[in-house]
Amino acid sequence: MSQLQKICKAHLVTILLAFFLASKANAQTTMANVASRNLISLNGKWKALSDPGAVGDWKKIWMEPKPQKKTDFFEYSFGGAPELNVPGDFNSQVCELAFYEGAVWYKKTATLFKKKNTRQFLYFGAVNYSADVYLNEEKLGSHEGGFTPFQFEITDKIKDGDNTIIVKTDNRRLENGIPGLGFDWLNYGGIIRDVKVIETPGTYIADYFIQLKKGSLNSVLGWVQLNGEHLNQKITVRIPELNIAYKTKADSSGYAKLEFLSKFKLWSPQNPKRYHVILQCATDSITDEIGFRSIETKGSEILLNKKPIFIKAVNIHEENPIKKARAFSLEDDRLLLNSAKELGCNLVRLAHYPHNEDMIKEAEKMGLMVWSELPIYQNIKFSDSLVPYKMQDMLQEMIARDKNRCSVVVWSLSNETYPGTPNRDKALIDLTEKCKAIDSTRLITHVINTQGYTNNSFHIWDTLYKYSDLIALNEYIGWYIPWQGKPSEVKWKIDFSNKPVFISEFGAEALYGNRNVPADQASYWSEEYQEQVYKNQIEMFKTIPNLRGVCPWLLFDYRSLGRMHPVYQKGYNRKGLISENGEKKKAWFIMNDYYTKKEE
Ligand code: GCU
């Protein structure tokens, strides 16, 4: 490349980056603990226009021009448009949109009023994959990323009475998206989680972090961040049950460090204890229910509250199998989490993206640890100049929302990315450092499947393991890769052998009810074949040094367009232990028996 070409490329990258950052103008990371605020729900029926021709921007749909002269006409209108339920993916609501990947424009009229000493924010729980948000014909900003919340301050933009909110959602996959062009789940699009108007005082408690210091069972190390004009305020953090009333004072930036000791009843799966916490300053007061626990590794052990544990997990996609739709409600969450409890789990791996906030809160109440994961999945274009910025945004948004949820014990930063991809190692090592800097109290890991399996021996080697607290590997021996010997005789060579090993995915497919067919042939998708894979895997687990947890892929059969077999799959990945109709396969009983007998 000539010098001139290099200069032009550098300028182009700068322009792209400037455009990307500018287009994100105003899309803020959300305030902490939205649920504790005065909220105006905008859930319900929204007008919707699908825009497969992607002409809405060009036509400036958000302006909603009305015919002025008799000869005027416009080839779009929300008047007379169909309606979609919000929250909820659009694919499962309208059969013509079942596999749609494109733009859908939503409109809602909200009756709002300016209030003295009150600030107002427009909040979205998640929009997949991107959102351009307009209020009364003015663009508030954009957000990219289908699984984390965002907000816009609208205090000075609303008018008393009816306000028009128009959102362009677009679930087209992007080569430099996160995830990228290919992923093994249905690309549900639209406003998939709650929409609310949040009200706060003029100066309010915008953010806080209240958790035990890494490695401590009695010392809280955290902070509070105020936002507004009166920042040098005294702040009190109360935990009435512990007679704590910790007092501090915010600095000129509104920041105040927290550090106090107490004797906590520690949160655990057996005793999911949470405390009522009150945060107060002169202008604001909010409450939260916070659990306190310690999670760390020590050599090859995973320690929960200083005691070694074995993680009995299961993978879950955010899909209500019965509704065949993106899960978003408490009812959806409880269906999935109760099923994980019934299997005998103490942890749920929320694959492969942050699930809705209530999923994490419900897990915390039920005594389920949570593995939360970024959709940095398989084929990511790490060499694209925007991708590291997008990764960091998603990391910050994921942690901002859930950092006070003690159920979250693992931040997983990637799944099965390809070693050798340009910039992959550097981008993910940088992201790991950023994650550690934001939150050092949890385990941080990358999920890998680059291990070699030859001569019935595994060689675990990926560079990223050096930066992970866990050796988390996905292996499908017995399904994608036939056994090369007896499961009980598998040998292991693990380059970072002093760390806990976690089998983050294993399993096989079966169509529920497909029995009494040749049980030794994978191509029949029989329950017996899947059952045998589980028996063999459990046999192999005994050979794994430092094994500290396993996580079958996955709880329910789920939708994925690449799963095309017309008899056995019909658009479903059939690795579920349970069918999409809630029927337990034979393998479910093998796994349940293993967890029942396995020491925690
Ligand atoms: C991979 C991947 C999953 C995928 C699974 C499968 O390990 O992490 O997202 O669904 O394999 O092939 O079923």
UniProtKB/TrEMBL annotation:
<dbReference type="GO" id="GO:0019391">
    <property type="term" value="P:glucuronoside catabolic process"/>
</dbReference>
<dbReference type="GO" id="GO:0005975">
    <property type="term" value="P:carbohydrate metabolic process"/>
</dbReference>
<dbReference type="InterPro" id="IPR036156">
    <property type="entry name" value="Beta-gal/glucu_dom_sf"/>
</dbReference>
<dbReference type="Pfam" id="PF00703">
    <property type="entry name" value="Glyco_hydro_2"/>
</dbReference>
<feature type="domain" description="Glycosyl hydrolases family 2 sugar binding">
    <location>
        <begin position="92"/>
        <end position="201"/>
    </location>
</feature>
<feature type="domain" description="Glycoside hydrolase family 2 catalytic">
    <location>
        <begin position="296"/>
        <end position="542"/>
    </location>
</feature>
<dbReference type="Pfam" id="PF02836">
    <property type="entry name" value="Glyco_hydro_2_C"/>
</dbReference>
<keyword id="KW-0326">Glycosidase</keyword>
<dbReference type="InterPro" id="IPR006102">
    <property type="entry name" value="Ig-like_GH2"/>
</dbReference>
<dbReference type="InterPro" id="IPR013783">
    <property type="entry name" value="Ig-like_fold"/>
</dbReference>
<comment type="similarity">
    <text>Belongs to the glycosyl hydrolase 2 family.</text>
</comment>
<keyword id="KW-0378">Hydrolase</keyword>
<dbReference type="GO" id="GO:0004566">
    <property type="term" value="F:beta-glucuronidase activity"/>
</dbReference>
<dbReference type="InterPro" id="IPR006101">
    <property type="entry name" value="Glyco_hydro_2"/>
</dbReference>
<feature type="domain" description="Glycoside hydrolase family 2 immunoglobulin-like beta-sandwich">
    <location>
        <begin position="203"/>
        <end position="293"/>
    </location>
</feature>
<dbReference type="GO" id="GO:0030246">
    <property type="term" value="F:carbohydrate binding"/>
</dbReference>
<dbReference type="Pfam" id="PF02837">
    <property type="entry name" value="Glyco_hydro_2_N"/>
</dbReference>
<keyword id="KW-0732">Signal</keyword>
<dbReference type="InterPro" id="IPR006103">
    <property type="entry name" value="Glyco_hydro_2_cat"/>
</dbReference>
<dbReference type="InterPro" id="IPR008979">
    <property type="entry name" value="Galactose-bd-like_sf"/>
</dbReference>
<dbReference type="InterPro" id="IPR006104">
    <property type="entry name" value="Glyco_hydro_2_N"/>
</dbReference>
<feature type="signal peptide">
    <location>
        <begin position="1"/>
        <end position="27"/>
    </location>
</feature>
<dbReference type="InterPro" id="IPR017853">
    <property type="entry name" value="GH"/>
</dbReference>
<protein>
    <recommendedName>
        <fullName>Beta-glucuronidase</fullName>
        <ecNumber>3.2.1.31</ecNumber>
    </recommendedName>
</protein>
